[in-house]
Amino acid sequence: METIDCPFEKVYPSQLARDVNYFMTHAYNEAIEAYKKDEVPVGAVIEHKGSIIASAHNQSRSTNDPTAHAEILAISQASHALGDWRLNECSLYVTKEPCPMCSGALLIARIGKVYYGLRDEKMGGVGGAVNLGALPNSNHHFESIGGVMEEFNHAILKEFFKGKRELNTAKKTSGSSRTFEFSE
Ligand SMILES: [Zn+2]
Q1: Does residue 71 have an active-site annotation?
Q2: In this structure, which of 24, 73, 80, 91 has its CB flanked by the most CB atoms within 10 Å?
Q3: Statement: residue 177 has pLDDT above 60
């Protein structure tokens, strides 16, 4: 598996304070794992009664699967861990606002609550572009809270895409026709 250097270090929070930042830090550490695998650095964890029952990062490129987003993988893990597809007693923590696909999956899974880092006005599915947690005729709604550890979560995405842009420029200069297409 190809690995690249990640300029960010994992953070190990105290186990004693199981607060929003504690869970988001674990999601952030998953984003670092994604970065090292040359994946768009997004990480997610799912909390149930104070414990992390699922932890995943984006794997779309390595698996050639556009649905392999951190949230989707975490939802599957959590459902298996609980032996129940309903996650209404769980909270999801993700470094970037979930896309419409993941927000739809969270709605189907009846997630209790969503905490996210960076808001996404282009593709955010819980308020940035659309809000699937508040469909007027749906019988499940969920609350979402953005801006959690936003600076950390923004910095890692920004650095990743900066690296990709530099790579694209270098390839164009060298005459290579292969470039990476990414958007923030
Ligand atoms: Zn997604």
Answers
A1: yes
A2: 24
A3: no
